[in-house]
Write a structure and sequence with these properties.
484 residues, three-stranded antiparallel beta sheet, globular
Length: 484
Amino acid sequence: MTRGIPMYSRPQRRPARRKRAFTAAAAILSILICLAAGLAATDARAQERRDREPNSVYLERRAKLAAQVDCPIVLLGLTGREESSQAYIFEQEENFYYLSGHNEEGAGLIILPPKPSGNDASNAPREILYLPGKNPQKEKWNGVRMSPGDPGIEARTGFATVRPFSEIRSAVENLAKTYPCLYTILPYEKELGGYPHEKEVVDWLQQAAPQSKLKDLRAQITALRQVKSPGEIAFLQRAIDLTVDSHLEAMRMMRPGLHEYEVAAKMVEVHAMGGSEAEGYAPIVGAGPNSTALHYDRLSRKIEDGDIVVIDVGAQYSGYSADITRTIPANGKFTPRQLEIYNIVLGAQNAALAALKPGVDLCQKGRKSLYKISYDYINSHGKDLHGKSLGQYYIHGLGHNLGLNVHDPGEPCKPLEPGMVVTMEPGIYIPEENLGVRIEDDVLITDTGYKLLSERLPRDPAEIEKIMAQGAAQRATAAKKGDD
């Protein structure tokens, strides 16, 4: 997915508020989720919604973070009121979830540095999870929620101390009397005031502890999030496998006469039926002229014979997002020009993959730049209709980090390390030819190279045409049986 990857800037995060209304495709997902929620209504844990890692993993993350600071960390989760859309499904703020594994609204978190300071008692809790109090009336409508008074809440959450959220302000006020500073996540886009949640947390802390200096925790938590745990890799692989299944289904069903939204809806259905709780991002299915629009998500065009179709769709599983793109011919056969451009993009991706290993980067320039390898390949192979090199039509970066966010935090110029998961997605977009091609795969950086997590989905154009031909044959057989 190329969203937020301009030529010379780092990937942008999604805002914390995320809408789930993805045109017609979301309707299928929402219905399936509602049915699943209804069937599980008697389970007090149904509202947690997704698998998670063991509590020990989140505890270890918090300990690593605490070891890097000299003042308390104060984080607030989302409240559930960030989005008013009726199609909205609650999803926790990513950094809060990464540290707590808690996916319910209205929570707070305080983590103290490992050693006491000043008058801080040595036996004081080093980390506290704050949860809303029990609300039976609300639970009649929305289902059972965790509360600080629940039996066994400490073992269930992995926190030795769980207190009512109503106490967090007084706790912050008291900490400010002992520590000269507090750590939180300061606004990402300072010139724009930051994302709403980040700004609201800062405003709240400034009111609760006006004498405290606020320090930014973003760099430390970003560094932790970039290297994935085994559990995170497993969740990513599950999201990727579901996404591969949906892309194969899209190849088999593709034909002139379909609308873009029909393809997207089928893919979302495959994800949801496989256990995906949401899409990683709004599905992109762009046919013909829409194939050249990087962020196209209107899904309104009727696919025509001769169109090329860019399909950039990714499932989310347990909060972790896949991000895969394939470009296929609407009628099952690439034209000579489509095939020429496709093979150039595929060659650029293969060239970058051949050099992929720890120590290289996704920067736009430099000796270790994978982007430069892919750009040089594209620029030296093929021409446009005016005889000019194709580099000018490669208008985004090569890839980005993948994780809880489809554009997980991380600097493109940071050398890749084992355990990172990134995308490899070169592309060429020629508006005057109504011809856009992007090929995107998800890869895990290993000690000696990489593992292609989306390897099961063919990239070879002949293999794609073969799958599409099989799909056409199956439709013809089914139609014949219907006539009989």
